[in-house]
C-alpha cells in the first residue's frame, strides 16, 4: 500500500515536472505572439462584426451572431496562459498590473468569460434584442479589461 | 404579390450590398494579420501540445486533448475568409496557388476540417491510441496544405 502510494506520488511529481518543462519550453516572445493572436481574432469577431451589428451599422444576422459567439467561447479561454511571468519584460502593451495585480486580472478574465457565456446562451434563445444587448456587454468587458491592463495607444 | 416579391428582392440586394461593404471595409493587410493569427494559434495547440503528446514527447492528458480539439474545431473555421482576392499582393507566405487553384485550396481546407472533426469525436470516445492516431492525421493535413500552398522557409 505504501509502495503504491509512493508510486502514485512519484507519478504526480514526474507528471508535474513534465508539465512544467512543457510550459517553460515556450519562449516568452512566442507566448506574447500567441496571446496577441487571440486578441487579434477577438477583435475581428467583436469589433469587426458583432458590435457593428448590435449598433445597427451592419444588418443583424442571427447565424453570424451564433457562429461568432461560439468562436468567442473558444477564443476567450486561450490568451491567459500567455501572460506568464516569463513574459513580463517582453515589449507589449500589457501593463505591469497584469503581473502585479493578478487577482484583479483574473477577475477581469472571469467577467469577460462570463459575458461570453451569456452571449452564447442568448444566441441560442433567438431574441435579437437580447443578443444585441449581450454583444454590447461583451464589448464592455473587453474595454474594462483593456482600460486597466493595456497601455493606451 | 409582385410588390411583396419586389420587396423581398430589394431586401436581398440591399442585404448583399451591406455584406459586401462589410467585407470590403476590412483592409487586405488586416485580413492577412487575422488569418496569420489563426495559424499561430493552430500551431500553438497542434505543434506545441497535441503532436508532442501523440509522439510521447510529453505525457498524454485526455483533458488537454479534448480541450485543444474543441479549440481547433473553432479555429479551423476561421482563416479562410482571410484569403480574399484583395490580399493577393500583400506580402505573406501564401503561394499564388491559393488564389489561382481555389478548388484545390478549398479541398485542402475541407480535408483539414474533416480531420479536426474526427479528432473531436475521438476525444469524446476516450480511446487514447485512437486520439493519438487522429492527432497525427490532423497534423498531416496541416502539412499537406502547407506543402502545396505555403512558401517554404
Entry summary:
Chain A has helices at residues 2-24, 28-54, 62-75, 97-100, 102-125, 128-149.
Question: Can you tell me about this structure?
Answer:
Two copies of one chain form a homodimer. Chain A is mostly helical and 153 residues long. Helix content of chain A is 75%, strand content 0%. The first copy, chain A, has six helices and no strands. In chain A, helix 3 (62-75) packs antiparallel against helix 5 (102-125). The radius of gyration of chain A is 19 Å and the shape is elongated. Chain A starts with a helix and ends with a helix. Residues 1-14 of chain A have low confidence and may be disordered. The interface between A and B is medium-sized, with 27 and 27 residues.
List the helices and strands and how they pair.
The structure is a homodimer of 153-residue chains.
Chain A lengths: L1 H23 L3 H27 L7 H14 L21 H4 L1 H24 L2 H22 L4
Helix pairs in contact in A: 2-3, 2-6, 3-5, 5-6
Give the tags.
mainly alpha, disordered N terminus, 153 residues, homodimer
Rg of chain A over CA atoms, rounded to whole Å, is 19 Å
> Which protein chains make the most extensive interface, counting residues with beta carbons within 8 Å of the other chain's beta carbons?
A-B, 27 and 27 residues
* C-alpha termini separation of chain A: 61 Å
Unreliable residue runs of chain A: 1-14
Shape of chain A: elongated
The tally of strands of chain A reads 0
Amino acid at each position: 500500500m505504501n509502495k503504491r502510494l509512493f508510486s502514485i506520488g512519484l507519478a504526480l511529481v514526474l507528471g508535474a515536472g513534465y508539465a512544467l518543462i512543457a510550459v517553460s519550453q515556450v519562449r516568452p516572445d512566442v507566448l506574447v505572439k500567441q496571446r496577441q493572436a487571440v486578441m487579434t481574432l477577438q477583435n475581428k469577431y467583436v469589433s469587426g462584426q458583432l458590435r457593428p451589428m448590435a449598433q445597427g451599422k451592419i444588418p443583424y444576422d442571427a447565424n453570424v451572431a451564433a457562429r461568432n459567439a461560439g468562436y468567442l467561447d473558444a477564443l476567450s479561454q486561450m490568451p491567459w496562459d500567455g501572460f506568464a511571468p516569463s513574459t513580463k519584460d517582453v515589449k507589449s502593451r500589457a501593463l505591469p498590473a497584469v503581473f502585479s495585480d493578478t487577482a484583479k486580472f483574473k477577475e477581469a478574465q472571469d467577467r469577460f468569460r462570463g459575458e461570453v457565456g451569456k452571449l452564447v446562451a442568448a444566441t441560442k434563445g433567438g431574441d435579437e434584442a437580447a443578443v444585441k444587448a449581450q454583444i454590447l456587454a461583451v464589448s464592455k468587458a473587453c474595454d474594462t479589461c483593456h482600460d486597466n491592463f493595456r497601455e493606451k495607444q
